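The data are set out underneath:

___
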Amino acid sequence: MRQNRSIFILLALSLLVGIFILHQYGESWDDLSLQKYAARSLDAYRSWLLEGEVQITPEDLGNYGPSYVMGVALASRFLGAFLPLSLPDTRHLIYFVTFLTGLWAFYSLSLRWLSRTAAMAATLLLMTQPVFWGHAFINPKDTNFLAFFLLTLYFGFRLFDSPEPLQPENIDTRNKRTLALLSGLWLATVFGLFLFTDAFHTFITTLVQSAKAGNTNIVSWIASDLAKTDAEVYIKRYYVLFIQLRFVYFVLSTLILAFLYCKLSSTTLSSLLSILLPAVFLGITTSIRILGPFAGLLVAIYAIHKKGKQTIPALSVYAVIALIVMYSTWPYLWPAPIGRLIESLQIMSQYPWHGQVLFDGVQYASTDIPQRYLPVLLGIQLTEPVWVLFVAGLTVAIIGFVKKREYVELLVLALVWFFLPLAGFILLRAPLYDNFRQIFFILPPVFMLASVVFEKIKQTPLQMVLIALALLPGLIGILRLHPYEYMYYNTLIGGERGAFRRFELDYWGTSYREAAAWMNEFATPDANVWVDGPSHLLEMYLRDGFHLFSGHEVERAEHYDYVVATTRYDLDLTSYPNAEIVHRIEKNGVLLAVIKHIPR
């Protein structure tokens, strides 16, 4: 604990800063839809067990895993009872705490290959990237996926560092065979009952309809009033009974099997408990985003590299628990697990986002972005020292590998975790939008390799000076852009002014909180307001009395007193272009949104 004091001090200070500034961040464009999805997913736990229904569709974001947003919904309700924060600010606090937890995992992972000073430098360099710092408060998806990805790796690697993986060697041959048979039976029955849920529903439907038609089967024997009752009533009744009995069977069979393992092997219980937490993180990470299993793959590669085939039993249990957690926290999958999981894989690999992507002054469809999209954005949205240090650190690591076999694991990890996925995203032209937030999770090796440079500098004063210089551009960017740090661009493009109307800036409309503050103070009471862009982001911060209208509303007003428009998609130029601009929301001379007044 004392050895890790520095990281805990850093995180505590960061949390303190975050608490004082989080009320200045606006809500993100995507938050409302995710809150609705979280509410539907939480409601599914009741409706599934009692009614056999999950009222979630792909349009409700069902193909996204909901585990994190459900957790945020529950935590924000709990914290809201005693924290003097609005609900949006409570969510921002949870997002930021999640990010800080991910930083702890990143630091802990870095210590495997770097000295404490270099690991701390890597953590600070990542944390002080304005893009990451800004997203840490407002992003309900990508920085949180990054954090859980890092936690999955940390606990997964630590699991297979233990001297004894799951190997119940003190069980005699006969009992081993018995347990193997029972384990196989458990896997077959439990996974069969759950994976083929839709097939069981079809079977029940067929039985009921056949009995309704006058054929003799088990339903006709037990349903005394079938002739007087609609078939759908019995189909639903028996389907719900199947779901409930299946749940009871799963719990009881799992407990019995675990009891037998523990009774026959004194080490099994501790081994199972050691696997539980890492597997839960993998399951939750997968239920945040369909790319979560990539973290499990990295853990499996590490485990086999460390201990070979003897890790297969532990990896098998690890995978099974993770699958159970993923399924349990993703209600959309419940009615048809195999079909809906395949559907989610297909849809999320080619996500049909219908907006336009502004890149170098040209609007692209998300499925038609050029191959230079990621290289350019990574080059101009991270601070200038990052890539200089990365190239230098990669060179030092390769030389160290060739001469002394140093940094072998770090180089392999960087290849599998960063280089190969990045190449895949670029060459396959994966659909991307909102800059590169979807690939945050592959970037940690960049900062680890960048900090190899600091490790090789032995003079402490020089080391501290270089670390400070490396952090300075990020710190300056955070200070000058607050609370819009996520739209940071470095000097290679001329900063945010150089990026204006060439690249995406406030693409999540967070400036509408500042627009609402101006409207609350200066706008005419009971005014009619036309909102272009995310009207819900303005509405949540406005005082009562305004009448809001937007493109999503059928109702129209005869006259609008004010118009609020974001600069995204140039809406500030096209929305009531002749109206007088009475207020501009700007940051460092860059226009983010406008408020216009239309006299009566």
Remarks:
- The chain is about 60% helix and 5% strand.
- The mean pLDDT is 91.
- Residues 173-333 form one domain.
